[in-house]
Amino acid sequence: MGIYLIRFDGNRGIIKCNNMNKEETIKILKSIKKISSINMELITLGTSGTIKGLVGKHMYKSVNIRK
Fold it and tell me: Where are the domains of the chain?
């Protein structure tokens, strides 16, 4: 089940996975509540069949990030 971090801008990122594992990947990422001593919540903004589609739709939008 390969999961790859394609792009990360400090607040938002793009994860690549096999389309057969999309829902399982989202569940795994949502289960992460803390990294080191930092509490966090991962939110899925959208999914797409292509990286280009995600970058155009989601990477440059202004999003309120809760810490």
Answer: 3-59
